Amino acid sequence: MNAAKTSSASRCRCLVFNPGLEVLDYRVPAGAQVQPGSVVLAPLGPRQIVGIVWDDGRLPGDDYPLARLRPLLQVLPVPPVPAPLRRLIEWTADYYLSPMASVARMALSSNAALQGGGTITEYRLTGAEPGRLTPQRAQALERLAGEQATIRELAAFAGVSDAVLRGMVTAGLLEAVRVDSDRAYPLPDPDHAVPDLNPGQQAAADRIIDAVRARHFAPFLLDGVTGSGKTEVYAEAIAAALAIGRQVLVLLPEIALTQNFLARFEARFGAAPVAWHSGLKASERRRAWRQVALGGAKVVVGARSALFLPFADLGMIVVDEAHEIAFKQDDGVRYNARDVAVMRARFEAIPVVLASATPALESLAMADAGRYERLILPDRFGGALMPDIRIVDLRTEQPERGTWIAPPLVKALKERAERGEQSLLFLNRRGYAPLTLCRGCGYRFCCPNCSAWLVEHRLSQRLACHHCGHEVPPPAACPECNEPDCMVACGPGVERIADELAQILPEARVFVATSDTLNSPDKAAQFVELVSGGGVDVIVGTQLVTKGFHFPDLTLVGVIDADMGLEGGDLRAAERTYQQIAQVSGRAGRGEKPGEVLLQTRHPDAAVIAALASGDRDAFYAAETEARRDAGAPPFGRWAAIIVSSEDEAEAKEAARAIGGTRPNLEGVAILGPAPAPLALLRGRYRYRLLIIARRSSDLQSVLRDWLGTLKFPPGVRVAVDIDPYSFV
Ligand code: ADP
Ligand code: ZN
Fold first, then answer.
1. 357 CA: nearest ligand 1 atom
2. What's the confidence (pLDDT) of residue 404?
């Protein structure tokens, strides 16, 4: 449909941002110009609603008489949503059984940006000498150094009220600055600091660069061991895209990694890329969104939500650490950004690079089937060796009672301390202890909203639920038997390992690195600086430290509990354990000094542990592949989960039963459940699950639509469909 034809029509079909309504017809008022993709403001009852003009024909609608259609109120001053992104919105909604409005909203993710450009007023400290200060003003002065933002953002940042800051403006301590909300970003220069790639890296880079220049769809699996220079390789492809004036999107699994990436990128290209994540201030969001849409943001690095940004001229997508489950969103639209990135590349007709040292089985299967081109980097850059991996058998090498670090690891830690090298201990459990008991009566501290234990956090002096965020101070006495000072910690978390380290190496500077301590890009950057500058001897960390970081003086990695990930036993337990341990091992010996990894385990013979110790990745993947094939699991079969929940237990159960009772009986489709979910209570909602296992050839989405589409539930019941589920709790 060309633009001229639609704009001459006097009616148009809109995707409106209301998941229940989706599609409405409107009249285009005389003089207004719309085309497919135009972002508009439309009347809806007494309200106004944002919508996107959709291509005729694609959306169903009835032929309402033109005279009775309400006119659009305004065409918003932003570029129309480009056709490839409209196709992606349709595909994502279809595939994940989500309302198109919910998907489209992820693309139009800054309300302020839709109002157009213009100037906004921000404030900053003037530097004037303050006289006597109230405590609040003193606090604001201290916290706002170097900051510039709107009054409201500054107030939130400084922890004071708007009124305090307005008073400071009057007193001449803060000044207003007019800034252009659309101001351009510094342009990255593809020729700024070009590295010398080694022949293997160059060969891989050339394949991607060719595809960038050819401007066609080309999916790559960049499969290189940790430290092989995957980032350097795809950076050269980014340079090629910049050289032909196109934009690039780089997706990272954690915002904690962005700062690291920004610094490296800036060293290579002379200007930082544009960051996109949930921690941006509203004004930063607005500027980034508009520059993406106008083409001025050349390279965007972001979390999964960046995937739906309305790029003006996208030339390539990179998904780094593509195996990470953080790319799967488990609320709202339950999509997998890795898979949707490949679809976006297809619609945009551009290359997409999935980079990983431990690819997902699904991605390897695509490469084996010839659908992705596999680019292999078998060696670490610059002659660095892969670390030596040794098993510590906890059955024979027992830690002392009440401790978790076994003698061989204690010895290795002491050696590193003597040599002035750094160590990393990995335990994927935040807090001090996963379970707290009363010593008097055995009472277990549990979350009132979830079927989960409360986790003791000593640093912040809280008992916290890791599922819903519920927090209480540690009680003075047992709520059950009134025993004072009753709490006994069971099992280790990272904080407890740090305590144990203080006994082993009293002089060592220990950093506990988790989402509690690295909860913003700035804090992550400080952490990187501290470790790189030698200010930390031992890092104790969760999965957050398994990826991305490059610390040349880190030569020892200790895995406290290599068996932990296998406990839950879900579909990907072994694969995830393999990935996590291989990744964290990959942090050791990245510089000139060789690295060593000690895996503490009670199951040295388990296939995944043996594969890690022998470095036989191929054998592990081959065995996993066979297990998946036998189970009819992805990528050999299609899976979907149905999660039924309600605050009312009986209502949830009844709804789950109704769904189970109307299950279709189809050849090649097995339906398990309903059964209470492993997390039977989550955030105050009772939950039931069903699992659908279908043949690859079956149209799982249609089956689900036909089945669930006819059922009606009470308003308190939520029925969520999770296609290609990653979480089974
Ligand atoms: P990966 O992403 O595969 O783990 P990186 O891209 O982080 O690997 O590379 C590991 C280290 O080696 C980094 O410090 C990187 O700067 C360096 N490196 C890799 N390739 C080159 C190269 N061709 N020239 C200079 N340094 C390189
Ligand atoms: Zn909870």
1. 3
2. 97
Q: Which residue's C-alpha comes closest to atom 22 of ligand 1?
A: 197
As a whole number, mean pLDDT of residues 108-134 equals 88
> Closest Cα partner for 457 from 448, 444, 466, 449?
466
Phi, psi (5° rounding) for residue 238? Answer: -60, -45
Cα gap 19→105, rounded to integer Å = 10
Please provide residue 126's backbone torsions phi and psi, each rounded to the nearest 5 degrees.
Answer: -85, -20
Q: Residue 323 belongs to what H/E stretch?
A: none
Choose one of 198, 201, 206, 231 to mutate for the ligand 1 pocket test, by most ligand atoms within 8 angstroms of C-beta.
231
How far apart, in Å, are the Cα atoms of 158 and each of 128, 151, 248, 279, 286?
18, 10, 35, 16, 22
- Residue 557 CA to ligand 1 centre (angstroms): 20
Compute the C-alpha angle 326/339/54, nearest 5°. Answer: 115
DSSP H or E stretch at residue 235? helix 230-243
**What does residue 184 show for φ and ψ, rounded to 5 degrees?**
-75, 160
Rg (CA), the chain: 27
Helices H, strands E: what count in the chain?
21, 29
- The better pLDDT of the pair 669, 59 is held by 669
Q: Measuring CA to CA, how many Å separate 307 from each of 70, 115, 361?
A: 33, 22, 22
Q: Which pLDDT belongs to residue 231?
A: 95
Which amino acid residue places its CA nearest to atom 23 of ligand 1? 197
pLDDT digits (tens, 9 = 90+) for 466-524: 999 999 999 989 999 998 988 999 999 999 999 999 999 999 999 999 989 988 878 88
pLDDT digits (tens, 9 = 90+) for 270-306: 999 999 998 888 888 999 999 999 999 999 999 999 9
Look up residue 720 and give its DSSP letter.
E
Residues with CB under 6 A from ligand 1: 195-198, 201, 224, 226-232, 381, 550
Summarised one tens digit per residue, pLDDT across range 431-459 is: 999 999 999 999 999 999 999 999 999 98
Segment 199-224 mean pLDDT: 98
CA of 406 to the centre of ligand 1 (A): 33
Distance 545 CA to ligand 2 centre (A): 25
> What's the pLDDT score for residue 282?
85
Written as one letter, the residue type at 492 is P
> CA-to-CA distance for 272 and 262, rounded, in angstroms?
6
Please name every residue paired with 600 in a beta bridge, in sequence order, or none if there are none.
Answer: 392
Q: Tokens 């000094």 — which residue?
A: 593
Of all protein residues, whose CA lies closest to atom 19 belonging to ligand 1?
Answer: 229
What tokens were used for 191? 């020729």
Residue type, position 458, single letter: R
Q: Please report which confidence band the pLDDT of residue 8 belongs to, taking 50, 70 and 90 as the band edges.
A: very low
pLDDT at 156: 86
The residue type at 217? F
Q: Please report which residue ranges of 464-594 form alpha helices under DSSP H.
A: 494-504, 521-532, 573-585
DSSP class of 61? -
Nearest to 311 by CA among 34, 2, 84, 15: 84
Instruction: Please give the C-alpha separations between residue 187 and each of 74, 79, 269, 271, 720, in angstroms, as whole numbers.
Output: 33, 21, 9, 6, 43
- Between CA 192 and CA 194 the distance in angstroms is 6
**Strands 247-251 and 119-125: what pairing?**
unpaired
Q: How far is the CA of 459 from the centre of ligand 2 (A)?
A: 20
CB 69 within 8 A of CB 10: no
CB 426 within 8 A of CB 561: no
